Amino acid sequence: MEAPGLGRGVPASPREGLVKNVSLESLQLCERDGKAEDSGVVEMELPVPVNIRISNITCDSFKICWDTDPRTKEKITHYFIDLNKKENKNSNKFKHKDVPTKLVAKAVPLPMTVRGHWFLSPRTEYTVAVQTASKQSDGDYAISEWSDIVEFCTADYSTVHLTQLLQKAEVIAGRMLPFTVFYRNQNQEYFDHCRDSQGGRMLPSVKDNSGSHGSPLSGKLEGIFFSCNTEFNTGQPPQDSPYGRYRFQIPAGELFTADTRAYFGDFYCMYTAYHYVILVLAPRGSPGDIYCSERLPELDVTGNRFLTRVCGPDGRVEFRHAQDVILEIIYTDPVELARGSVAQISGHQLMSLSTVNAKKDPSCKVCNISVGR
User: Fold this and answer.
1) pLDDT averaged over the chain?
2) Can you say how many angstroms the Cα of residue 125 is from the centroid of all Cα atoms in its chain?
3) pLDDT score at 102
4) Which of 3, 173, 282, 341 is the S-S candidate for 305 at Cβ 3.0 to 4.6 Å?
């Protein structure tokens, strides 16, 4: 069966010069569960799509194009599209005889844009194959053989999607509290290694896969994680930590200078009431700054809802952080231990609160946007 209105606005020929978008709402599920004799497939020679090309890939859409014999174009009324996540690429192909559902689209001039946030996920590998089809007067279809399988990977979130996440995070960020230090918790062996093997420096490393699946930071940006949240009743960093019993503290002004740029990176939770916001601090002109400037929304360091640096009339600089979200700060340059101090904390190591490679809760309405997870 066909989607109502699927063919409206389709030009009579490609010469009209318009590339049509076909949303996944216009890709109709074909429901056939009969036997071979009533499968709705008739014999007719149709061209097999060759030289399939995927382009204009985003986190939730792509364009697809292929070559066919121009002498048979007039026969083609539909495309059958087999789109699967790569791990399922060996699953059975669409066969009218025994597979009840597959995507069917009315034939439009190529390239055709396939989009639909409920179907495609960001940073995910897919396989795609195509058949051409001709709908007969009695409702049956003639179909070609399947094309070769083509693989592609969807893209990361764009700045448009990250801005949507930023706006959702702003809603729950809460009031701003003063702080004076950034801190990083690790085990003693980590700091010994920094002293003995890294010239007394903490070096950036590639961010893990925690947070949103479409984050352009995961597996790509190099940095050092810091925290800055304080306890409401003391105004000091908490004494508990999921990452280790030793803490490096550094005055906030050492990392967050007048020449530091701030970027919004992510907003997520881990099936708990706590929500996390990832921010990036990068010295202006550094490799980290260049990477982020092309991919992340930049924050006004004097007037955002998460982390601010404000110079008062008397010249004193005050730093503030959001109260109601847990901030994870990625600093993109090496940091010398001599610029701060390392000491043992008195609290507990709460391993259950670790966000290392933590997966985002895809069902949370607070921190998810409508395009993939």
Assistant:
1) 81
2) 13
3) 63
4) 173
What letter would DSSP give residue 173? -
| Residues contacting 232, CB < 8 A, separation 6+ | 177, 323
Residue 198 identity (one-letter amino acid): Q
Give tens-digit pLDDT for 107-119.
Answer: 888 898 887 644 7
The rounded distance, in Å, linking the Cα atoms of 43 and 143 is 8
Token pair listed for 224: 């050092």
In the beta sheet, which residues pair with residue 104? 28, 80
d(Cα 47, Cα 133) in Å, to the nearest integer?
Answer: 9
Tokens in use for 321?
Answer: 């952080």
What is the residue-wise DSSP string for 286-302? Answer: SHHHHHHHTTSPEE-TT
The domain segmentation of the chain, as residue ranges, is 50-154, 159-344
Residues found in the chain: 373
The single-letter code of the amino acid at 290 is: I
Query: Which structure tokens are listed for 331?
Result: 């600093």
Helices assigned H by DSSP within 104-225: 159-172, 188-197
* Residue 69, number of CB atoms within 10 A of its CB: 12
Pick the CATH number of 50-154 from 2.60.40.10, 3.40.50.720, 3.40.50.150, 2.40.30.10: 2.60.40.10
Both tokens of 46, joined, read: 């149709």
Q: What's the average model confidence in pLDDT over 299-319?
A: 94
Which ranges constitute the DSSP H helices of 139-219? Answer: 159-172, 188-197
Of the candidates 107, 132, 139, the one whose C-alpha atom is nearest the C-alpha of residue 49 is: 132
| Strand stretches in 41-97, DSSP E | 41-42, 50-55, 61-67, 78-85
Instruction: In whole angstroms, give the CA distance from residue 142 to residue 342.
Output: 73
| Residue 88, Cβ density class (10 Å: 0-12 exposed, 13-18 middle, ≥19 buried) | exposed
Q: Do residues 233 and 341 lie in contact, with contact meaning Cβ atoms separated by under 8 Å?
A: no
Backbone phi, then psi, for 349, in 5-degree steps? -95, 100
Q: 304, 262 in Cβ contact below 8 A?
A: yes
Q: Each residue of 172-231: pLDDT tens digit?
A: 999 999 999 999 999 999 999 999 999 999 999 999 988 888 899 999 999 999 999 998
